[in-house]
């Protein structure tokens, strides 16, 4: 089978690899559509400590079942499925209190085991979600990043509150859509790229550049201000900007992993009782809700996402890294089932 393999910083190659055999509790999928995640872009650049080359990345995907392990009886060959790539142990103290997303022994498909940047992939059957055969595979592949966003929104936003989002990349745009379905009042999205801000505006947000964020926040929210900010970028400037713009007693939900360490105004955080909450992946409930929202047509990738083939993806990664990509999101299509 053809696989897109990460070989080191800015090094990708299409290689032939063996089609995997399923373990008793696994299924083998023919991959139809797999999204390129911002975290994989960080891996491509050599900035991810958990992605070790050589590695087949890819954790946002949809496909059809072609082979089932001997212990799997809840699915049938040919079924169309979305995959939750987060594999929790189910037995550690975190899993026992319902926090499998921070399982002490967690694995993620495309990081700790081969991912979906390949024609076929092996996944635990327990992590599969059936979807209608007619569902667009490119849309279905957004379930994983949408679940990330639903989890982040739940950690901070209350219904009918204002919201500020840093970043109009895929996570920022999906966070915007998730927040609007969950009752956000007015949403301000901050980004530097005009094209991405245009996508956010089309989806119902007010927008601003970082340089104008304080002015835009005051103009849009007035004395009411903003109690929740979700940072989908995660660098020094967005973290510090969020601290400056959030209301006293407000919450900053940190999703972006753009920079490991930042020097922040922590005395201001203490004196204003600002909560900074980390948000990592999602719960099973978040993932199920993401699948449902996509199935109901309440979240879209139209206008801000595009597709490419496996070989083309090498150039797409380079364009994304160099800031030359036209779209916020690129989804790799690997079979005729993607539509």
UniProtKB/TrEMBL annotation:
Domain Enoyl reductase (ER): 8-332
Cofactors demanded by this protein: Zn(2+)
GO molecular function: oxidoreductase activity; zinc ion binding
Keywords in alphabetical order: Metal-binding, Oxidoreductase, Zinc
UniProt similarity note: Belongs to the zinc-containing alcohol dehydrogenase family.
PROSITE patterns cross-referenced by the UniProt entry: ADH_ZINC
Name the UniProt record assigns to this protein: 2-desacetyl-2-hydroxyethyl bacteriochlorophyllide A dehydrogenase
């Amino acid at each position: 089978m053809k696989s897109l393999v990460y070989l080191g910083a800015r090094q990708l190659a299409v290689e032939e690899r063996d089609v995997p055999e399923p373990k008793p509790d696994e299924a083998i999928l023919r991959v139809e559509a797999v999204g390129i995640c911002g975290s994989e872009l960080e891996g491509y650049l050599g900035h991810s400590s958990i992605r070790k080359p050589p590695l087949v990345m890819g954790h946002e995907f949809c496909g059809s079942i072609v082979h089932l392990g001997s212990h799997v009886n809840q699915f049938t060959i040919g079924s169309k499925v979305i995959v939750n790539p987060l594999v929790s142990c189910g037995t550690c103290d975190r899993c026992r209190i319902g926090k499998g997303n921070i399982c002490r022994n967690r694995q993620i498909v495309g990081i700790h085991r081969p991912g979906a940047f390949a024609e076929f992939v092996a996944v635990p059957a327990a992590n599969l979600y059936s979807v209608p055969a007619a569902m667009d595979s490119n849309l279905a592949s957004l379930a994983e990043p949408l679940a990330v966003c639903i989890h982040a929104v739940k950690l901070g936003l209350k219904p009918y509150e204002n919201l500020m989002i840093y970043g109009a990349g895929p996570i920022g745009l999906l966070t915007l859509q998730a927040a609007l379905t969950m009752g956000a009042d007015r949403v301000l999205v901050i980004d530097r790229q005009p094209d991405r801000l245009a996508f956010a505006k089309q989806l119902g947000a007010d927008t601003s550049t970082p340089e104008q964020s304080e002015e835009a926040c005051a103009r849009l929210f007035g004395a009411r201000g903003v109690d929740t900010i979700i940072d989908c970028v995660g660098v020094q400037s967005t973290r510090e900007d969020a601290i400056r713009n959030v209301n006293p007693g407000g919450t900053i939900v940190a999703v972006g992993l753009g920079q490991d360490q930042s020097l922040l105004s922590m005395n201001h955080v203490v004196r204003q009782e600002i909560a900074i909450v980390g948000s990592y992946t999602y719960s099973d409930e978040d993932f199920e809700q993401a699948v449902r929202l996509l199935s109901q047509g309440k979240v879209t990738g139209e206008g801000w996402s595009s597709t490419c083939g496996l070989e083309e993806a090498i150039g797409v990664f380079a364009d994304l890294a160099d800031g030359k990509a036209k779209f916020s999101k690129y989804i790799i299509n690997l079979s005729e089932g993607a539509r």
